[in-house]
Design a protein that fits this description.
This protein is an all-alpha fold and about 90 residues long. The protein is built from two helices and no strands. The protein has one domain.
Length: about 90
């Protein structure tokens, strides 16, 4: 946008680089493709594999995880499915 700013403020973040690990996984434990494209979001195989992966990482990563979803709808569908099967 090339908008000039008279004042620029940058602060260090509370989380250090050593505390961050970004992963992109292509397939789940049963070789299910982990794609959240619209046509796949309601797939039980996808939702179950995603849940298994997150559960696995939650057991080995101290202090919790931050998981991003492509939309609120995808988050809602996934959370609702997990509630039903648990």
């Amino acid at each position: 946008m090339k908008i000039p700013f008279d004042i620029i403020l940058e602060n260090p973040h509370i989380i250090t680089d050593s505390q961050i690990k970004v992963l992109a996984l292509g397939k789940g434990p049963k070789n299910v493709v982990l794609s959240s494209k619209y046509s796949n979001r309601d797939s039980e195989d996808y939702l179950e594999s995603l849940g298994q992966i997150i559960l696995h990482f939650a057991k080995i990563v101290p202090h919790g995880l931050l998981v991003f979803f492509p939309s609120y709808r995808a988050l809602d569908v996934t959370a609702e499915y997990w509630k039903v099967i648990s």
